[in-house]
Design goal:
Structural class: mainly alpha
Distance between the termini: 21 Å
Order of helices and strands: HHHHHHHHHHHH
Helix content: 55-70%
Number of helices: 12
Strand content: under 5%
Oligomer: single chain
């Protein structure tokens, strides 16, 4: 959600019309991509992961060309090329550096080895999507330096940013994974609480994230549960670690299956 506060980064979504068509399809596509490319033996020719990589790169290329062809109002001076390399690097830094910062705020202890692994993962994913590997950060220091320089070129969130934020929150109401409306409303409330806990009040206000009662209660409970769980369950053997990997894989595949089942086939751009 915090990424939407960078106004220039959002412009390709606005100019391609994706802004008006909701977040459900975007989340399903993103989930399908990263689950498939992070499994073992993912890059066999014509595997699901291989096809998703090609499809995503073609989609980026097509969007870039069409924006340049159809939209004479594109501000190259401020926004650069549509879906440019530096914006892509910054996006993946959000999924590594900023992602881990959020986890730490929620009480997760990340080891030095795990931190290196996350940066390595996103360098790999960036490479799959066409970013030269030497442009992707290797560690926290490089990522922080790059992200700081990139943010200096960005404007604060604008009206389009607020529309994107609303679409992401409303995805909870549109998705049919949860059967009952009250469940979807509760999930939306919990996501709003996490936004108020993890993002500055200034950003929440700029993105027009709704104010809710006791917003810090739920995230604080998550933090306490995470701290307690880590104290109880210390990874003291390779066997325990392997079991966590298997459990995580099973849970991720279940979430992907839910999204694939509950995103209508005709729900396209």
């Amino acid at each position: 959600m915090g990424g939407y506060d960078f106004a220039y980064l959002n412009k390709p979504l606005v100019f391609t019309g994706v802004l008006k068509k909701g977040a459900v399809k975007r989340l399903k596509d993103t989930l399908e991509f990263w689950v498939n490319v992070t499994r073992e033996n993912a890059l066999k020719i014509n595997s699901d992961a291989y096809q998703l990589i090609v499809r995503t790169r073609l989609m980026h290329s097509y969007a870039r060309l069409k924006i340049k062809e159809k939209n004479k109002d594109w501000d190259y001076g401020n926004w650069g090329e549509p879906i440019n390399t530096w914006d892509m690097v910054a996006t993946y830094t959000g999924f590594s550096l900023v992602f881990m910062q959020g986890l730490k705020k929620l009480g997760i202890i990340i080891s030095e080895e795990e931190e290196k692994g996350v940066f390595h993962l996103w360098k790999y994913i960036g490479y799959l999507l066409g970013i030269p590997a030497d442009l992707m950060p290797e560690n926290r220091q490089q990522a922080t330096e790059q992200f700081y320089l990139w943010t200096a070129t960005q404007a604060k969130g604008d009206e389009d940013s607020a529309h994107l934020a609303k679409a992401l929150l409303d995805e909870n109401l549109q998705s049919t994974i949860l059967k009952y409306e009250f469940q979807r409303k509760n999930l939306r409330y919990l996501h709003i609480c996490c936004n108020w806990y993890l993002l500055d009040a200034e950003i929440n206000n700029r993105l027009l994230i709704p104010a809710v009662a006791v917003p810090h209660l739920f995230p604080s409970l998550i933090r306490k549960a995470n701290i307690l769980t880590q104290k109880i369950f210390k990874l003291s053997s390779e066997k325990k670690y392997s079991q966590l990997v298997k459990t995580g894989n099973k849970q991720q595949l279940k979430v992907l299956d839910d999204y694939l089942k509950h995103t209508p086939k005709d729900f396209h751009y």
